[in-house]
Specification:
This protein is mainly alpha-helical. It has one domain: Four Helix Bundle (Hemerythrin (Met), subunit A). It is about 80% helix and about 0% strand. The protein is built from five helices and no strands. Helix 2 runs antiparallel to helix 3. It starts with a helix and ends in a 6-residue tail after the last helix.
Length: about 200
């Protein structure tokens, strides 16, 4: 009996140790990806690597595409939230994976546009200017902050670690939704000042 109890205790300790190692690895991996993405965005957005080729014509359509992607992501996130409240886990997963793919496409499109095209200055004056920059700055900061939360939430959700997933999503969902909605607002506010 003692041998069986000791064996079970050892196995449970071993499982916990493996979970801890896996959690550590995932956290480091997510941190690495998030830092890498941030550095790439800064390097290309600030044109640290200079543009040496002519701007492709499709690049000028990208801000509109980005706004459409953000609007679609906002809708998908809300539908996904509704589906999980109905306990439709399969649909919730599909919608979130689709939203993540679209958000990744948005990131590539955003980087391409800002790499090739000179930055547009917002032309509004008075209170609306402060509103625009408040929305823009919070959008940028939260867009950078939400990536690791999304990646960790995905990991927990796909591993069916429901409680850990819920704790992360309490922060990830509203931030992600805010970023997608404000992405559309920023586009609508800045687009009249595009000069291309």
């Amino acid at each position: 009996m003692c041998k069986l109890t000791c064996t079970l205790a050892y196995e449970q300790t071993s499982i916990r140790a493996n979970e801890h190692m896996t959690d550590k690895f995932i956290f480091r991996f997510v941190t690495g990806i998030s830092i890498f993405v941030f550095i790439v965005v800064v390097i290309l957005n600030r044109k640290i690597i200079p543009v040496t080729i002519e701007t492709p014509s499709f690049v000028y359509f990208l801000p509109k595409l980005n706004a459409m992607i953000n609007a679609t992501c906002s809708i998908l996130l809300l539908i996904s939230f509704n589906q999980i409240r109905k306990k439709n886990i399969a649909m919730h997963k599909k919608l979130n994976i689709t939203t993540f793919i679209l958000s990744s496409l948005f990131l590539v499109s955003y980087i391409l546009f800002h790499y090739f095209v000179k930055e547009t200055t917002y032309g509004g004056e008075g209170v609306i200017r402060y509103v625009y920059y408040t929305i823009l700055i919070t959008h940028i900061i939260l867009a950078a902050a939400v990536l690791p939360l999304i990646l960790l939430s995905f990991h927990r959700g796909l591993q069916m670690q429901v409680e850990k997933h819920r704790k992360l999503v309490k922060f990830a969902f509203p931030i992600w939704l805010y970023v997608t909605v404000t992405g559309v607002i920023v586009y609508l506010m800045i687009s009249p000042y595009y000069t291309f």
